[in-house]
Amino acid sequence: MTTAAATTDVLREQARAVVTRRQDEVLALSHQLHADPELAYEEHRSARRIADLAEAAGFDVTRGVCDLPTAFTATAGSGELVIGICAEYDALPDIGHACGHNVNGAASVAAALALAPLADELGITVKLLGTPAEEFGGGKVDMLRGGAFDDVAAAMMVHAAPQDSVGMSSLAISSWKVGYTGRAAHAAAMPERGVNAADAMMIAQVAIAAYRQQMRPGAVVSGVVTSGGEAANVIPARTAADYDCRAVTSEELAELQARVRACFEAGALATGAELALETVGNDYADLRQDLAIGRSYLSAARALGRDVLAADPALRGGSTDMGNVSHVVPTIHPMIGYDCGDTIMHNPEFTRFGTTPQADRAVLDGGLAMAWTALDLATDPAHRQGLLARLAARGPYRD
What we know:
Layout: H1 3-21, H2 23-35, H3 44-56, E1 60-63, E2 72-76, E3 81-87, H4 101-115, H5 119-122, E4 124-130, H6 139-145, E5 154-156, E6 159-161, E7 164-166, E8 172-181, H7 197-211, E9 220-227, E10 238-247, H8 250-271, E11 274-284, H9 291-303, E12 308-310, H10 322-326, E13 331-332, E14 335-337, H11 348-351, H12 357-379, H13 381-394
Helix pairs in contact: 1-4, 1-12, 2-4, 4-12, 7-8, 9-12, 12-13
């Protein structure tokens, strides 16, 4: 065994010892987050639990960063190589942690705790970023704009899933609230006096359906009408809908948005109704995972006995604001799996598997695999210098 390999093995075992020693409080955190779900930008108790734990462990904690009350940073060490570990903790309306963010957040805490005692020896700064509002709004995008990632040379997190994988991408997405305002009238006595907002919405939906044949592969437009009128004998004066546009890349998303917007404008033009189209939250970029960091994670996770799929980068699933981070910072976003029966994420059944022994193992293994990945980045001279060079070249983030 070479000296470098022996040193790496010693560091790995030191990180493992920290996770083992602190596993009870890390798993208690996961269970607390699961039992007390909070929605996007409202995760006050969740953010406080994580920040308090980090502060008690000796991290330098700054709360309410980037003008977000439920965002924070917690740092340990003072090395030039800053490793960013993103903690998510928001839940879904009505179905709680059906996306497993209690597992995500606790695993990131485990990774940060494991690395903190080694930070000075490794010449790194461990930066735990409390990132709110992944499910809706895009807290990481807000934090990018606010400069929270400006010093980060590599970013990582793991995400709960039915199985382990590393390397897959995700779709870019934008969300809209769409509304039409027309004029009410009696549907039988004087329909000619009305401007039918429901017809405007119907025409837009038909136009979108016709456009689907020409959409680029991978593009998805989905929506639901939330208000379509009050009575059958009244020409509807107002209609409203929520719509999502998804595409393979951010560039293709911009093209899709322009065409779908034109479909909604067609509804207004055809009926005389007035269109209001509002962007909801931040647009999410496609996820571009760093292949070299991904290989380190894959090796680490397999060394822990996990059955990890090396996914095709062309394989895409869902959307995440970690995609925006990945366009700026070398990033990985592996999936950490545990048994959840036949259910899938964003399903209320998935929620109930979030505190099982397998989910708890995912928390600890995910945290340790990230810590071991960070060790590789810090101790491999070529990888370390490459990350620092990329950091210096990019400068502060500008939207």
